[in-house]
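Appendix C: a fully annotated inverse folding record. The material below is reproduced so that readers can follow the format used throughout the book. The structure is listed first as tokens, followed by the designed sequence.
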């Protein structure tokens, strides 16, 4: 039993395609519905109480606007990112990059008319369980217990309904990625054997017997499939960003973007 647990840890594929998952949080409602931005960079909205709240357009992605409130929402929801460890906080630029990428993806979902599977309550509950038991921040906060989970939500000003919306949107986009890129990919027995020999076996120390290839071949195939999907997705998204009309209106975010681009080129 102990060896079986160790095996699952060693060859477990990246959770939910890590290359894609970092940007698959909640797509802001404004990015789904807004069209060309107003002449001014400020939007005035009236909440039910009658008071006036100012919001700003900080970016435009193919005529769809991204608001300052969307950015703040994204930074708040980033605590649910499975790659987050709580040691460093996302920058505003990192959050904006995710918003832009997800807006581009949502536009393609609508344009290509690929039907995405609506996640079931059981699927959402399963992902929620993963967050509560596997997310580093949640492990530290003892989110596995109801009291710990409630305290975590309160600390980060999140509600259970908001987390559920986050997971539902995430699953819908992942469904699109699977349908769009996974079909037609074939992993050969030779590729599985190469991964087993060159990647899996070296992880076992001398004196410890690794599992036979036949026992783990299906898991290796899944890992290789996810790697191939990630590579196709990354290229596709990079093309969307280069071909799209993306305008950042916030000067501070423009400066941050230019600095990051320069660092990347170096």
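Designed amino acids, in order:
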């Amino acid at each position: 039993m102990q060896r079986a647990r160790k095996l699952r840890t060693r060859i477990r594929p990246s959770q939910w395609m890590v290359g894609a998952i970092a940007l698959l949080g909640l797509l802001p409602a404004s990015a789904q519905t807004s069209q060309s931005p107003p002449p001014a960079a400020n939007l005035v909205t009236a909440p039910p109480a009658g008071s006036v709240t100012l919001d700003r357009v900080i970016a435009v992605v193919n005529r769809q606007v991204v608001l300052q409130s969307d950015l703040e929402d994204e930074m708040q929801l980033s605590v649910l990112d499975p790659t987050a460890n709580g040691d460093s906080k996302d920058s505003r630029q990192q959050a904006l990059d995710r918003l832009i990428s997800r807006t581009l993806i949502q536009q393609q979902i609508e344009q290509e008319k690929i039907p995405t599977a609506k996640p079931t309550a059981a699927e959402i509950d399963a992902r929620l369980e993963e967050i509560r038991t596997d997310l580093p921040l949640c492990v530290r906060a003892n989110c596995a217990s109801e009291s710990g989970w409630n305290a975590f939500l309160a600390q980060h000003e999140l509600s259970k309904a908001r987390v559920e919306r986050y997971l539902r949107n995430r699953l819908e986009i992942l469904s699109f990625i699977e349908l769009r890129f996974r079909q037609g990919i074939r992993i050969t027995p030779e590729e599985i054997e190469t991964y087993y020999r060159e990647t899996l076996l070296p992880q076992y120390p001398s004196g410890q017997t690794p599992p036979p290839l036949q026992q783990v071949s299906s898991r290796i195939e899944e890992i290789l499939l996810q790697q191939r999907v990630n590579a196709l997705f990354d290229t596709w998204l990079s093309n969307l960003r280069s071909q799209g009309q993306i305008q950042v209106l916030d000067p501070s975010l423009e400066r941050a973007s230019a600095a990051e681009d320069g660092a990347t080129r170096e």
